[in-house]
UniProtKB/TrEMBL annotation, chains A, B:
Uppermost EC category: transferase
Keyword Cell inner membrane: no
Function noted in UniProt: May be involved in the biosynthesis of molybdopterin. Catalyzes the insertion of molybdate into adenylated molybdopterin with the concomitant release of AMP.
SUPFAM superfamilies reported in the protein's UniProt record: MoeA C-terminal domain-like, MoeA N-terminal region -like, Molybdenum cofactor biosynthesis proteins, Periplasmic binding protein-like II
EC numbers, comma separated: 2.10.1.1
Pathway where it operates: Cofactor biosynthesis; molybdopterin biosynthesis
A UniProt-annotated Pfam family: MoeA_C
Organism of derivation: Anaerosalibacter bizertensis
Family as reported in the entry's similarity comment: Belongs to the MoeA family.
Stated name of the protein: Molybdopterin molybdenumtransferase
Length: 634, 634
């Protein structure tokens, strides 16, 4: 618990300026074959060594002639020319010997016998001749320095007789994963292990930025071992990245190691996530300590490492495209940090709607799901719902526009639909946010979603979904696409060790329960049953522990982290759990009528009605799809 | 001269539809390591195998406790906890043993002696705990099929315990260069040789499109040899490209070979350039005959080969961004073809101005210089100057906006400026069109250029440039940036074999001359001298042969294609020619006053005044730069 170092809180721009003023970018140069230069950046301008073409050549199939011998030819007065004496047959591209100065097209010739032809119009000097140097003249500039080589450049440079060019070398980036808890992917995992996926993500990022990644073996949290590896990496690479241990905790050695071997210029930048970054150098080479949380690491890679690599390669900073979007919900932010919020975007009607994803720095999936990044300036405490914000895109705008925005209750079938819709039509996507059925209703109300999967049991009538739509969405014209009936029940470990037979047992046997979040249909189902049984929620141990999906609840039970939870049959089956049925419920899709006309929604309906999809439902188990795809007006 | 095959004239869309209905895209699949999957396309959806984290872990540095033991703690009533008995020290990420259910942050602890701590508020269940599956739950979808893997996906997939994934294979594209005239880059060239640069351009394009290129050795124009190579390539590759010989000339064997070994579906598409394309298949594999002219080849690669490779890889069609521009000059087009015109773009004031580049299918440099492509539909005979057109961008829009558009007279120093301006500032570019001094004046008049290099001798006054600006640009506020005085003279082969001493000798000795185009300052200089000498242009042999730059004239003389030409000293020196001085002239830069304020123009002026640039002028020779960079108002 020794924490004696305090991090600085440099503003981002200040940190970048300060750090880049301290480090040297020693760009290397190398001579490579022109044909291997795709994507490389020229270190020198490329001038042609020869002309292309380097001789006069025919621009047509026809005959090469001396134009003076054709003077006077016209429709009435044909002139006859003799092969070998007066003309030479040439194809396009053939060189024109010095004695000829013009080409007559084959179409303009009257063929006679004995290799003779007649012509009926005179030929102008240099007609149909591709002059020497028409494309490239000797000693002229083909591409300037600092130019990124494209395929067409390779052609022109070779045509200009230049077979080797000087380009900037790609920097080698050493990546050192540190942490006693880290294990290689693929090994048998035990509690406390963390798979070292960060170093692999960095390697792909380094490749994307234009560098060459060199990954070192995992180093345990041992000061001397880390120091030795950093020392070796500095001697073998142009830039060194040390992953994790960049903060100021008791086993955070990065800053100390860099200080001992070189210099730390900045430790801590006012960004979130990504604050505990170490910006230093050893032997004049940039050395960066990168935080361990994957999202923090991503932000630091994008803000610092990308810039350095691009400078090394001579590449220009590639910026993400920016779009305007309407914020669907309020985002609070600290005045202490410039914050990077991962956003989900959806084009609902004509508006691009931006919804913040999980802000946890540990959630790799928030990066996978993100369509863009919203920056909240340090001097703002937050942004209100409904405000227009600027978002840096991580995906193609067109793909976002071709995405069904699905917000509501979770079921594994949503994952399947999301995969199938894209497989059936390359242009289409479905993105889903699992916020529970009531969350889905609210999203439709605010115009943030195209569709909302719901399974809401009305406590009064015992009827599903329709009463909620009538109550909460009465001002909207909402239809219901019937989906599946599914079985909800109590998920328990294989063999049902506590012998649970009904909800009553949970409180009676004082078992550890794991619940779903407020607004989830499954939670309402629990509450409905507790009320019927006259059990107070406080009697359920773990009632307050909230998970967001059926699979999360099932995973908690599978890992003996809870004795039981309420959820659907397919989730229990996937996780190999036993299952005590409690109720059949109706899981349907609410949709505003105006979206029913959209081709992508049409494709969605065809998909859920397809045999392909029904086969998948049978595989999952516990679904009744007899009414699937029927559209009803509540 | 046997041309017995006539090409078809399929409309492009029809050709694409017909061809793609005839060929099979047999996409291969392979399993690769997740960490090597950057940029690949998933062939199956990727579901997690484990949860991440797969145990409950601490979200903070602190102590793990049983929350029940903390009940009742407050500011007045501290509760003392003992290490080992009541708590466990945990760092962020450490697993929480089953006996604990809550984490208290280190900041909220009062350290006592003997491993004891006091707390002053109670801990809630699951507080500061990162629950199992918070990021990824076992069996949940990480990325769907048809997804292109990004670095963040690699992290998430590995975190989800998936170390190998199934992706589409990259297709192997065989490239067969054919032509007796082809030689490898780097060999000693003789007249009639053509460097095989096309196959290298194709290889880079194939890489860019996502395929693997396999280049075969050059095959001479021999039917059997071509057939054998195609046969071999079909057995080794997924797609085969045969370069040149795709038309219907006497040595165009592609179509016949493909017909013998397989099927030709289309031979000839109504596009320009690119018409003589062969679209066929052999043993169910696409085989394409690609025209020999590099621009035709480029168009066919982009329209057909790119599409096929993308379908193989499971990639979506990447489209070029489109912008609107004003056409600077009229373009005529044939009703027979959909035409692809390479365009130079420039942002002059607020308008994006598009100017067509050379339309010759043989000019690789027009592709290198092009900022975009304009498609002229088949049903249009042309587009008028001033009309708004849509252009597919080949460069970043931002780079185009940061480009000085320089239209006018040519001098090798313009190439040097174009290189240096970008070297001195990454963001800046200069693009130049060599249309002669009068062309430059007209470009300024029409608002198509920022600057115009001119050297225009007024026949009456003998004064340079200013009389022309006053006459032609009197309605514009034009300044002159003084540039260089340079020596014009007669360029003759080394040793001056014809003993030329003055312009008079050209006609008197009946020598072969090579002239510059109408509107070029150098041509005006010749005319001025001929007039003074009372020589009629018809007395100069080759007066009608027009070249567009000093270097082109020098190259014609160097290659004994002409006995002499008029041009500047530096061009003669570059080409190793002898030089007979004729006149000193003033080569200056005309510029509208409103552009003088622009930072990029400021940089331009600083550059030409710099020692770095003056050194380059000294190296070239023949330049007097005493007034360089001075700005005068005519």
């Amino acid at each position: 618990m020794d924490q004696n170092i305090y991090l600085s809180n440099y503003e981002l721009e200040e940190a970048i300026e300060h750090y880049f003023s301290k480090i040297n970018i020693n760009r290397g140069k190398e001579v490579i074959k022109t044909e291997d230069s795709y994507g490389r950046i020229t270190a020198l301008p490329v001038y042609s060594k020869i002309s292309s073409p380097f001789y006069n050549s025919s621009a047509m199939d026809g005959i090469a002639v001396d134009s003076r011998k054709t003077i006077g030819a016209n429709e009435k007065n044909h002139i006859v020319l003799e092969e070998g004496k007066d003309y030479l047959v040439v194809d396009t591209g053939d060189p024109i010997p010095k004695e000829y100065d013009s080409v007559i097209m084959v179409e303009d010739l009257i063929k006679l016998d004995d290799g003779k032809v007649a012509i009926y119009k005179s030929a102008a000097s240099y007609q149909n001749i591709r002059p020497l140097g028409e494309d490239i003249v000797e000693n002229s500039l083909i591409v300037p320095s600092g130019h990124k080589i494209r395929p067409v450049d390779i052609g022109a440079i070779l045509a200009g007789g230049v077979n080797e060019i000087e380009v900037y070398t790609k920097p080698i980036i050493g990546i050192i994963p540190t942490g006693t808890e880290l294990v290689e992917p693929g090994v048998e995992l035990k509690t406390g292990d963390i798979i070292d996926f960060n170093s692999r993500t960095f390697a792909a990022q380094v490749f994307e930025y234009g560098g060459i990644a060199k990954r070192y073996a995992i180093v345990s949290d041992d000061y001397e071992k880390i120091k030795d590896t950093v020392d070796k990496a500095v001697s073998q690479c142009d830039i060194v990245l040390i992953n994790a241990g960049s903060s100021a905790g008791r086993e955070d050695y990065t800053s100390k190691v860099v200080k001992e071997l070189g210099q730390v210029f900045i430790h801590g930048v006012a960004i979130k996530p990504g604050k505990p970054v170490v910006l230093g150098s050893i032997e004049d080479k940039p050395v960066i300590g990168i935080p361990g949380y994957p999202v923090s690491a991503y932000v630091v890679m994008e803000l610092f490492v990308k810039r350095i690599i691009e400078k090394y390669c001579g590449e220009k900073e590639k910026e993400h495209k920016k779009v305007k979007a309407i914020l669907s919900r309020r985002i609070m932010s600290s005045l202490k940090y410039l914050e990077f919020v991962r956003m989900k975007l959806g084009k609902v009607e004509d508006k691009l709607i931006g919804t913040p994803l999980s802000r946890g720095a540990g959630t790799t999936m928030s990066l996978v799901r993100a369509d863009g990044i919203l920056e909240i300036p340090q001097n703002l405490e937050g942004i209100e719902a409904g405000e227009e914000v600027e978002i840096s895109l991580l995906k193609e705008e067109k793909d976002i526009e071709n995405t069904i925005v699905c917000i509501g209750s979770h079921d594994p079938i949503i994952d399947i639909i999301s995969d199938l819709i894209h497989m059936r039509n390359d242009d289409y996507y479905l993105s889903s946010a699992h916020v529970g059925s009531m969350g889905g209703i609210m999203a439709l109300k605010k115009g943030e979603a195209h569709i909302a999967p719901v399974h809401l049991l009305d406590m009064e009538s015992g009827e599903y979904n329709i009463p909620y739509i009538k109550k909460y969405l009465k001002d909207k014209d909402i239809f219901l696409i019937k989906c599946v009936k599914r079985i909800q029940g109590i998920m328990v470990p294989k063999g049902n060790p506590h012998g649970i037979t009904s909800i009553k047992d949970i409180s009676e046997k004082n078992l550890k329960f794991v619940n779903r979040q407020r607004g989830a249909g499954t939670r309402l189902l629990l509450d409905y049953n507790l009320k019927k049984l006259n059990i107070d929620p406080s009697e359920i141990k773990g009632y307050d522990r909230e998970e967001f999906t059926h699979l999360q609840v099932a995973a908690a039970v599978e890992n003996n982290d809870a004795d039981c939870g309420l959820g659907i049959y397919s989730a229990a089956k996937m996780m190999g759990l036993d299952f005590i049925p409690v109720a059949n419920e109706e899981y349907d899709i609410a949709i505003p009528s105006k979206f029913l006309e959209k081709p992508i929604i049409n494709e969605f309906i065809n998909l859920i009605k397809s045999d392909e999809f029904k086969e998948k439902l049978d595989e999952l188990g516990g679904y009744d799809y007899r009414e699937i795809g029927e559209i009803i007006r509540p």
